[in-house]
Request: fold
Amino acid sequence: MGISLMTDPLIIPLSPVPLYTQIKDFLRQRILEGSYRPHQQLPSESEMSAIFKVSRITVRQALSDLQNEGLIFRIPGKGTFVAKPKVFQHLAQLEGFAEAMLRMGYEIYNKVVSHKSMPASPAVAHGLKLEVDTPVTEIKRVRHLNREPLSLEITYLPEDVGERLRNIDLPTRDIFLVLENDFGIALGRADLQIDAMLADEELARQLSVEAGSAILRMERLTHTASGKPLDFEYLYFRGDAFQYRLQISRQGADAPGRAG
Amino acid sequence: MGISLMTDPLIIPLSPVPLYTQIKDFLRQRILEGSYRPHQQLPSESEMSAIFKVSRITVRQALSDLQNEGLIFRIPGKGTFVAKPKVFQHLAQLEGFAEAMLRMGYEIYNKVVSHKSMPASPAVAHGLKLEVDTPVTEIKRVRHLNREPLSLEITYLPEDVGERLRNIDLPTRDIFLVLENDFGIALGRADLQIDAMLADEELARQLSVEAGSAILRMERLTHTASGKPLDFEYLYFRGDAFQYRLQISRQGADAPGRAG
DNA sequence: CAATATATCCTGTCATTACAGGTCATGCCA
DNA sequence: TGGCATGACCTGTAATGACAGGATATATTG
Reply:
């Protein structure tokens, strides 16, 4: 029952651990302890199937879980690889600014409102360092937390990258992770601007608030590791969502409240 | 190719959308719009298999994704159900205190250090409102973020609940979600206490810091919705991990820095 | 009537098979 | 020698079948 390569043959679990869990734990340990190094290719699914003497579907279940944990990524036609840790920790901080306030850890879902090509506006062109009217891809998404819309995110990308995103499951996946892992684009610095505004008609509709409600607007320009501007975004957060963070801050440290 | 019950037959996607994605999107929309109500039982996997005219494995892939998104939960032998939204949003705020600072959204993994039964210490007994020496379950976990240990979490639960957790995949799953969804225990208020301390030998070893490093300690007592104390925890965070949050706060609002 | 046994339904797990489509190196051909 | 076709390899998707084990209602038995 047990998998000899993975567990001491003498240790036979009393309540049998599922095969895919054994494989998952085995691979995770190897990755975390460094036996499999970042960016290293893992054996193919077929090879693991032979090594562990299980069917490919069982191997895939283990790999899918590890992918969800962020430890590995897969490229169709190429193979399965160990993900790099902390590659964009600094970006995570930025994402964290939005996430830390809003993401409570449950029920994250991004509704893709539109995904189209259009000529770059002056602002977008300036951000991405392109000529005005160069075709760019615009993606509008509404982030839902616990089934309530919490932010509208409008993303502008160079058209070649934007088109490749059409094959990606955007409702579930994180664009940064796709750029890094699926597309192999290393990310670097990001610039932020933050201000407040009132909800217009579209924002009110998308975020299920009344027109004129308070909105926190963030402008974010993310660069590749080599410094080329890649991802220009407008993020609109529901103002009332901010209360969570304030409550948290009050309890956590001596951060001051902020009228809200 | 398309699934007639789900999409307008006139709309034929140019690049064919996988069947499981179609099913996933269909169910998600029904859940989000409220056609399927919280706690409502979905058709069984076999029924969906017949309804959508796909194999059960395809249905399961869709359901697994929805489970990861937190929209549904499954009980072996009973069925698949719509999860309740926002049930412990107030808890999420507390979780958010830890998560918001530490969770950057990538590579979360909990290493289970130990999981055993033991007599309740006076502090634990007082928290859980039990007699001293009543058997309770103690679970020690080290939370890893981006492959670095960031917090040691020691959880005390009544023994009956703690034993049921042995069948749960704790490295991947969230205890609160398990209590709510798998065990059907509605959660309510939680009480917090926070202070600072220095790392002792065990903490230093578990968190990969030097003994004497700064540690933020949190004591959390979570109650059921009916007010019965259920989950008593000690959370030890690496002090240096706090810088992230401070940086975030600085950018976001006028929260003061904190010497780190 | 109560306790037990049984049948049934459901999710969990796993094997086998098959084909599509992306990637990439090899080798053929112009 | 450069460009293209081919094939090997890999992941993605999907069907079919099977059995285990939990949950539950029904039927059987003491």
Summary: The domain at 89-252 of chain B is CATH 3.40.1410.10 (Chorismate lyase).
